[in-house]
Amino acid sequence: MQQTQRALLTLREMILEGVLVSGERLWEPALARRIGVSRTPLREALVRLEHEGFIVAPEGSGYRVRVFDHDYFRDAIELRGTLEGMAARRAAERDHDEASLGAMDELVEGIAIIVDQPRLSHADFEQYMTLNAEFHQRLVALAECTLLAEELDRIAARPFASPSAFVMAQAILPRSRDILFIANDQHRCLCDAIRSGDGSRAEQLAREHAHIARRNLAVALQDHAFLDRISGAPMLRAALD
């Protein structure tokens, strides 16, 4: 498992950073030597990467790096929003103890402490990412649907589709604090909708929340300074060529 995880992380990073380019054939013996793992964990890692959408396996030709375009990234974000909308609606339709809902409130308040500061440091953005990721995980848990959780994990693993994919890059934007403030206000409204049992409102809010990531993607496609701060910028830049 350790070798498989190492191979997975290394290959994913190589694709994100453009070391392995779109459409490139992945030769297993050469990759195994390059990464320093045996063939079995390498194959297991390749299966995971195919599952995550980083590579494809055209019939009879082995694995290749997926040829991405910006529509793929945008669609992945939109799909995450749709699935999180379903999760939010199901969460609102279920009965929850106050401890579960209170944990969500605490995350919202923790983020509020960060974004209420006049200036945000690098550490603040990192802390925001941590709390934001936990908020989204708890939201899905409240839906109490294993299949939905599995599908969300799968889509969030795709390039630039996770809830915090663009957070660190936002640090250079003049309105970065305002963007995070709006996002957390949506968190707060989402908690209120779930607590009041308003499934339609909860679903709508979750979908709207994902639109922030889509706007950030649009900014990245136009602003080179913003793009350069994103993990995986070389792959995103290649998708624009």
Structural write-up:
This is GntR family transcriptional regulator. InterPro entries: GntR_C, TF_FadR/GntR_C, Tscrpt_reg_HTH_GntR, WH-like_DNA-bd_sf, WH_DNA-bd_sf. Residues 1-68 form the HTH gntR-type domain. Keywords: DNA-binding, Transcription, Transcription regulation. The longest helix is centred in the middle third of the chain and has 24 residues, at 70-93. The protein folds into two domains: 1-65, Arc Repressor Mutant, subunit A, CATH 1.10.10.10; 70-239, Four Helix Bundle (Hemerythrin (Met), subunit A). Helix 1 (2-16) crosses helix 3 and helix 4 (70-93) packs antiparallel against helix 9 (199-222). The radius of gyration is 19 Å and the shape is globular. Strand 1 (55-56) and strand 2 (64-65) form a beta hairpin. The protein has helices at 2-16, 28-35, 39-52, 70-93, 98-115, 122-143, 146-156, 176-196, 199-222, 224-228, 233-240, and strands at residues 55-56, 64-65. The chain is built from eleven helices and two strands, in the order αααββαααααααα. With 241 residues, it is mainly α.
